[in-house]
Amino acid sequence: MMLHTYEGMFLLDTGSADGLKEAITELHARLEKSGGRIDLSSDWGERRLEHRIGRQKRAQYQLIYFHLPPDEISPLRRDLELSENVLRHLILSHEEERYQGLLAGEKARVEETTRSQEAAEAEAESEKSAEAPAEAPAEAPAEAPAESESEKSEATAPAVEESASEEPAEA
Question: By three-state DSSP, how is residue 147 classified?
Answer without folding.
Answer: coil
